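Consider the following assembly input.
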Amino acid sequence: MRSFFVYGILLTTLLTACEERVNIQLRYEGDKIVINSLLQPDSVAYVRITRSVPANVYDEGGFTEIGNAAVTLLQNGVAMSPLQQQQIKGRTYFVSREKVTNGNTYTINVSAAGLTPVSAQDTLPVAPIIADAAGQKGSTRVVFTLKDRPGAADYYRIRLFAYGPDNQPDTARGFRLDPAFNNNLIDVIANTHNDALIMDDTRFDGKTVNFVLETQALINSSRMMLEVSTMTDGGFKYFRTLGMQYLGAGGLLAEPAPVYTNVHNGYGIVAGINSRRLVFDTE
Amino acid sequence: MSLAGKLLTGIICFLLCFPLKVSGWDWQTRVTVVVKDQPLKAVCEILEKEYGIHFSYSRELVDLSRKVTVTAYQQRLRSLLEQLFAPEDIRFTRVGDQLVLQQIKRSTHTISGYVQDAVSGEKLPGATIYAPTLKQGTTTNQYGFFSLTTVKDSNSLIISYVGYEPALLPLDGQTNRILLVPLRPLASLQEVVVSGTDKTRLQDQTQMSKVHLPLAAVKSMPRLLGEADVMRTLQSMPGVGGGMDGVGGLHVRGGSPDQNLILMDGTPVFNFSHFFGVYSLLNAEMVKSADLYKGAFPARFGGRLSSVVDISLKDGDMRNYHGDVAVGMISAKINVEGPIVKDKTSFIVSARRSYPDLLYNAAANMEDDAGNKGTVYAYFYDVNVKVNHIFSPKDRIFLSLYKGEDNLSIKGMVDSTADQAGRITENSRFQLGWGNTIGAIRWNHIYNTRLFSNVSANYSQYAFKTEYGFQYNMPSTGQASDLYGKYFSRMKNVGVKIDFDYRPTPNHAIRFGAAGIAHYFKPGLMDLADKGPNPVIPLDTMKKGLDIRGTEMLLYGEDDWRLTENLYANIGVHLSGFLVEGRFYHSLQPRLGLRYMLPHNWAVKASYTHMNQYIHLLSNNGTSLPTDIWVPSTQRVAPMLSRQVAAGIAKTSTNGVFEFSLEGYYKAMYNMIEYVNNNSILTSNLERWDENVALGKGWSYGGEAMIRKQKGSTTGWIGYTLAWSTRQFPDINQGRIFPYKYDHRHDVEIVLTQQIGKHWEASASWHFTTGSPLTLPVSSYHGAGTASPWDPGSGVDVSVDRYGGRYNYRAENVHRLDVGISHTKQKKHWSRTWNLSVFNVYNQKNPFIYYMKRDEEEKQRYLSKVTVMPILPSITYSIKF
């Protein structure tokens, strides 16, 4: 028995990884303007302007807002009304007066003192066609129907929210495609759930598909909301690469994934997104 | 005196004087000639100038280019001429005042046969056969066969092989016969160190960029957890790098592991590792020797870009039964060999299994007899069987089988409590396994003393399989599920090959052959179904796997050619074609090796090789995993190809104690692939794999130096590598050139083995390499989440790291000292050996991976280093009988 424990200790030594902090001066590209704006058709545009920080900065408050930035929104190259600076939920947004609409190209130009001016541009996608969302309290299954456009490259983001005591869809639910629906064994083995699912329509182009989602925890809310958004190519690239960066963080094999940006001379994303939401009772 | 009288007197005097002048020299004339490393022609010119001896010969028929060193003081002319011309078979005759030289035409003699271990009958590849009087020699091929054709008579041959007593073989009446030359092994394990190019002197081999590794070299290295390992030993050679710390994988001259052709008795192996690359798939006791070619690839090899590892397995003792049993920290193994019919048929069987899971289950059962009956098995095993039969002195046949697997199996983990999702598990089972199955049959035939052939048929399969079954119910809703799925990948080769070894004249050693290989690719087959009461209709029934067949054909020919006295060449060509899905790829691959002898027995060597690779490995960043998938070239992804030039100098000291080699190389690689979006290979659509990869180029260049002591009680080597390896992909790093993931600028290897008395042997190896490239972010910024701050889910901060370019940093240097000591005691009928090894003696915390850590407790974000291989002592006990 003693030898067994000696063996066990040695094997544990092997398998127990040791981790330590590396004191290194990380290079910094310098302060850049960051634009974040997802443009929803038939809605005003909300543009958030921040400043980049060195990679070793922990505090998310370090993403300092650039309050005095000059932000311009152009529709098909023509400047729209000046954006209004607003404080919403403790954050500064530049909000357009007019709504953005499908069929147009929007450009956001930003300049600020001491920083290189930046610019980004995108269009708006058509809305997804979804219906028949349903789920049962005490189960882990949510279903809905999605009708995909034939012949067009469509990109989707799916999110699931539970209604809280305030009768607001305020709690994001972890979920995944049901493994049997996704026809993917690795899903079953990996058993990972996410707050959002980013996908293209390669597997169901032009079809009407009855989606089956599996929630991470039992559905315990009486009401839920399903959100399905279509995205432009730029938006899809951004969310997909962002997901890969998070997935690969600390990974053994994958190189760190650069996140897509369409902001010229700066960082961030300006992308069209078109969300539709279905609210359903689970009782 | 009249004019007529004067003329007559003059003529008489002339006639009287002429013979006197002609006879200014005769055979007994004593001459003095002192030259060093001068051609024979120069000696003739001295004789002509100093002694008036005129030589007459045809330059086309008589070769006077051989360099000689002559120290003759007052030596008789005939004696000196015999000494000069006899080795060249040049006859000299006096005609008037001329010395006429003629080339003697003699019938050639061929001496051929096998060199084998005198005790076991094991054939010895790479043994040296040398005729000292003629200064000619050759080496045995990988089957232990040699053929030495000479135009001169020779009284005897010296046969030698590292670790064996040299033998003197008289040749009276032995020519034109097939000989069997037994060599007796040395009593101790001295002279076991790696030899640079076979067992002859480096300067006698045109082949460069090659390392020969006998079993003894593998066994004498310090061990990791008690396991001697072929691949780990090869990693300690200049020009060869490992992957991540503690994990195997050969990165040869800046190439990735998928560019290595690993042959086990001539059969290609897809995945050469157990335990995620920590160990080789082969029990080291089965290995007779291994040859690693880093460049200057002979024409008989092809199909991979960067290296060839040609492993010869033992054949089995023809005379006596014996074997060994060993228990290490990770595995136990047994090897048995012996005759089935003495001197006719032999066998060798080797088996190995890791056993930590058995200990775990035993302990778990002891502590929880009434509880969970679940079992966990996590192990690897391999079994080797080889049978060798001699039909006649000219025919022998080998049959070899290998089966090795890694398995993880978790069964019956029943859990009556509901999980987070409210599921009560009724049954679950999970199995994960991968491994190789290899079989080969080979027939060696000697047509005559000059022509040898090997015909082989081989089969190699690599399979990865995972199964998952999960039955659960949810009492709250009545929902139930019975999920069963499996994922399966299989790649296999079936090949037929014929190789000829032909030694027509002393100046030519010719090899030629042909092969046909059928490739079967069936990777990524996935099947998942819910057999429960409420089955789910799958999103698609799209087949995710591939089912492709390809056929590869090749022809090759090479000639080891002595062009002049000092200039040698290995000229070859490898012609191959690959037919897959209606497409036909082909390539003509020239191979050239040159050697020129410099004074003081230094050889300068150069080579050019062109290699093609028709199959690609889908892996993440060149790191080999069990899930690796091989796929053939497609319309978009053409076959990989490389061109390599190398040049260097080499010498073995006169007493054979020291070897020195210095080489430089430049290699360009094309059509390499890399996944562009870090997709999971398992879940991506394999039918369109070529849309998810980037096509690029790579360059590797550098130099390697090695000095080695290979005789005496202290043996070992010091190797140094200076290397650069870069890649360029249009879709990666904005098209800019970036270093290869395992690009190490400097690499130093020091390996020492010390024999201490009869029973003790100590060894140490120190490894140093400069840091690997590392990608770190150059800034961080806020990410987007929702379109409107009023949307659900808004207000969640997303942090995005900005990466300016790939590999903008270097990880810290890696170094490690491993030591081992063995004590062997001979008993009456058996011997036992204890080996104590310590891996990473000074517990250097070498990096395994780095990542940007977000420390929620310290409220800091910093670079974190993970180390996995601390100091690891191990003990192995083995018995040899």
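Residues 129-260+273-281 of chain A form a domain with the Immunoglobulin-like fold (CATH 2.60.40). Ask yourself how this observation constrains the way the partners meet.
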